[in-house]
Amino acid sequence: xxxxxxxxxxxxxxxxxxxxxxxxxxxxxxxxxxxxxxxxxxxxxxxxxxxxxxxxxxxxxxxxxxxxxxxxxxxxxxxxxxxxxxxxxxxxxxxxxxxxxxxxxxxxxxxxxxxxxxxxxxxxxxxxx
Length: 129
Fold this sequence. Notes:
This protein is an alpha+beta fold and 129 residues long. It has a single domain, classed as Roll (Structural Genomics Hypothetical 15.5 Kd Protein In mrcA-pckA Intergenic Region, Chain A). It has helices at residues 6-12, 19-27, 73-76, 84-99, 113-128; strands spanning 4-5, 31-33, 36-37, 43-44, 49-54, 57-63, 80-82. The strands form two sheets. Strands 3-2-5-6-7 form a five-stranded antiparallel β-sheet. A two-stranded antiparallel ribbon has the order 1-4. The relative contact order is 0.13. The model has no long low-confidence stretch (mean pLDDT 90).
């Protein structure tokens, strides 16, 4: 096996859960081979550089192995090698996400029953005006 379709390779390398999800990823323009947007039937060979964007994360990997069937995760990890720049960027984004305050963190504690009743009374008083 010298070449494999990009959608099959993405599925085998576990960048997508299903083969159809891998095809949709490629059709949406989230996958580039050698810096160019490709179609699902594009074949990849060892040494090709593949850029994959999933959500906010962007991974740049070099194809080191080929597979057209999905296997264990340990085998899938041997199919590619992530570039150092891509790894640093992914780790930086992960750190930023962990340090970001969750939604609603600035709202404070949940109101007590008395506070909630006062808020309800205040809201009812405003709606009458």
